[in-house]
From TrEMBL:
This is small monomeric GTPase. Belongs to the small GTPase superfamily. Ras family. Pfam families: Ras (PF00071). Keywords: Hydrolase. NCBIfam families: small_GTP. It comes from Chionoecetes opilio. The keyword Transmembrane helix does not apply. One of its GO terms (molecular function) is G protein activity. It is an enzyme of class 3 (hydrolase).
């Protein structure tokens, strides 16, 4: 049973950037928002960026949480605050890919309404490659996620195009839901996906207006418990497991 009830229906688009340590989450986030590449960026805290960006040609309030791999819930796919997830791994680090794959799978199973973008970062380090692009692309297609391989270090344009297109999709998905339209188009054709990756020149993001550093307590305040369902009852269960049924 999938739980679609945690999607945000109004207000800012909320995106969580998750993934293993040292894969380039902070570099990617900062690159997108400021166009600058920060080579050494060490942080043990989650960072929440609040800004207004041009999304699909119109100003849109966006909040991006750059999660820290060392925080408790870095890859928690149940993070209900977010309606979209950028799941980052490094193409030079198989373990980071395995972690990303688990996250993508969990999101697909438990946050079906969330939009997901799988990013293989550090494509400039092809000689150290441990993750084949086709494997990651297939994983993304299987779980109806977007996919991109890119180098945050070398290509500001790729980062902008990929994230711009993703935000556009997140916004469209939300508007579709608000207008009573069909929920997220979960199956994406390869042609459409490649088209979005090739992309067109998009307007540069406007400067970041607000940065909030979240400590653990503040981060927890953003979380509300997921309502969990007992599979046989198909009803929310107060405490799990709902004996003698199996909780999902
Ligand atoms: N070669 C290369 N290095 C990169 C790229 N993106 C990030 N890095 C480097 O990877 C390292 C980790 O980057 P971060 O942005 O701190 O990674 P993170 O995922 O936020 O790490 P945590 O804060 O530990 O969760 C830094 O030394 C970056 O310079 C890239 O595209 N290519």
């Amino acid at each position: 049973m999938k739980d679609d009830r945690t999607s945000v229906q109004s207000g800012p688009l909320r995106v969580a950037v998750v993934g293993a340590s040292e894969v380039g989450k902070s570099a990617l986030t900062v690159r997108y928002l400021t166009k600058r590449y920060i080579g050494e960026y060490r942080s043990d805290t989650d960072m929440l960026y609040k800004c207004v960006l041009q999304v699909d040609g119109a100003p849109q309030s966006v909040e991006i949480m750059d999660t820290s791999a060392s925080s408790d819930k870095t890859s928690d796919p149940n993070l209900p605050w977010a309606e979209a997830f950028v799941v980052v791994y490094s193409i030079t680090d198989k373990e980071s890919y395995q972690r990303a794959a688990t996250t993508v799978q969990e999101l697909s199973e438990r946050r079906a309404s969330a939009s997901v973008l799988l990013v293989g970062n550090k494509s400039d380090l092809g000689h150290l490659r441990e993750v084949e692009e086709v494997e990651a692309r297939t994983l993304a297609l299987t779980h109806a996620a977007r996919f991109a391989e890119l180098s945050t270090a070398e290509s500001c344009t790729s980062v902008s195009e990929v994230v711009d297109n993703f935000l556009k999709e997140v916004k469209a998905q939300r508007n579709g839901n608000q207008n009573g339209g069909s929920p997220k188009l979960r199956k994406i054709s390869v042609t459409r996906m490649l088209g979005s990756l090739i992309g067109r020149n998009s307007p540069p993001p406007t400067p970041v207006t607000h940065l909030i550093i979240l400590d653990k307590a503040e981060r927890n305040k953003l979380q509300t418990p997921l309502t969990r369902l007992c599979r046989p009852c198909l009803r929310p269960a107060q405490s799990l497991p709902c004996s003698p049924h199996t909780a999902v």
